[in-house]
Design brief:
Number of helices: 13
Structural class: alpha/beta
Shape: globular
Order of helices and strands: EHEHEHEHEHHHEHEEHEHEHEHEH
Strand order of the largest sheet: 8-7-6-9-10-11-12
Radius of gyration: 21 Å
Strand content: 5-15%
Distance between the termini: 11 Å
Largest sheet: 7 strands, parallel
């Protein structure tokens, strides 16, 4: 019989049932503010870590795993796994539980696609900058004339769970939907499937990113963006790693694109982010939210409880 010693490194106080469920499985410690730097100086005797990449500073590679000599199971209540080095965990025989493969369950979790749609509307109607001008004491629409959604051409990168939900949000309002995903066939009534990106990019007004970070590092870089039309809106609720932030900053400053993102590159080290430094100084053509996409009460409750279910199934 194994005595489970569980360390939770993500805030769970607002999520129903999670603490009591984990306490019923084993000996529980909760350290939601544990930093990588601090963790590297300690030795933990836990054999389970329950985590989430949002609001976490921890990156589970060999260096950090040295602080967890007894770790057997790493549970992440997320589909994204950029905070875990799989090779390093595998070498130590650590089992990883994530939500990435839970397709049926995930179809009920629509929060991330909802935020992508909200950022889309906010960008094409200049809601944030218009609201800011009112706070500054002005009452004048002339700098904030936007575009009607039904007049724009949309390109959705990735027709997985979130890409397909985003398309469903768009579909009642526009037929100008193009989808790029070499791995799936897009249903005819959901949009026009694109084989070669080069051909369509010059026509596109809004690009929404719904691809995984794995194998897509800087997928949206100079090659992609130099083919886009001036004023194109880029929506990112996937991962900061899929775009070339350095090049995007240049285009934002030149007024060539608008970027609305919920994610940044190397989030665990966000204080060094050049994109956030730019945003502090100037919010023109840029909207950033602090990785709130999956953070609705309902989505968190579903995701965290599902992660505990998977953990229970594994140890049974």
């Amino acid at each position: 019989y194994v005595m489970w010693k569980i360390l939770v490194t993500t805030p769970i106080d607002t999520i129903k049932n999670i603490e009591s469920r984990l306490r019923s499985i084993g000996d529980l410690s909760i350290e939601p503010n544990l930093t990588n730097k601090n963790a590297l100086t300690r030795k933990f005797n836990h054999n389970v870590v329950f985590t989430n990449p949002n609001k976490s500073d921890l990156y589970f590679d060999t260096k950090l795993l040295n602080s967890f000599p007894k770790l057997k199971i790493l549970v992440t209540a997320s589909t994204g796994t950029v905070h875990i080095n799989f090779k390093d965990c595998e070498e130590r025989g650590i089992k990883i539980i994530s939500l990435k493969q839970e397709k049926k369950f995930l179809s009920a979790v629509t929060s991330t696609a909802e935020l992508a749609f909200a950022l889309t509307l906010s960008s094409i109607r200049n809601i944030y900058s218009a609201s800011k001008s009112v706070i500054s004491g002005k009452w004048d629409y002339s700098n904030f004339i936007g575009n009607q959604l039904s007049s724009l051409n949309f390109l959705i990168l990735g027709y997985g769970r979130l890409g397909s939900i985003y398309v469903d949000f768009l579909a009642p309002w526009t037929k100008n939907i193009f989808v790029y995903d070499p791995y799936v066939t897009v249903p005819k009534n959901k949009g026009k499937q694109i084989e070669i990106l080069e051909d369509i990019l010059p026509k596109i007004d809004v690009v929404a990113i719904h691809i995984h970070a794995e194998n897509n590092h800087k997928f949206i870089g100079k090659d992609f963006l130099s083919k886009c039309k001036k004023g194109m809106v880029l929506i990112n609720t996937s991962r900061g790693e899929v775009v070339d932030e350095k090049y995007i900053i240049k285009l934002i400053q030149e007024g060539k694109i608008k970027y609305a993102t919920d994610v940044i590159d190397k989030e665990h080290d966000y204080k060094k982010s050049e994109l956030l430094k730019l945003y502090k100084k100037n919010q023109n053509n840029l909207i950033i939210t602090p990785h709130i996409a999956g953070m609705s009460h309902q989505a968190m409750e579903l995701a965290y409880n599902k992660a505990v279910d998977l953990f229970e199934n594994l140890i049974k």
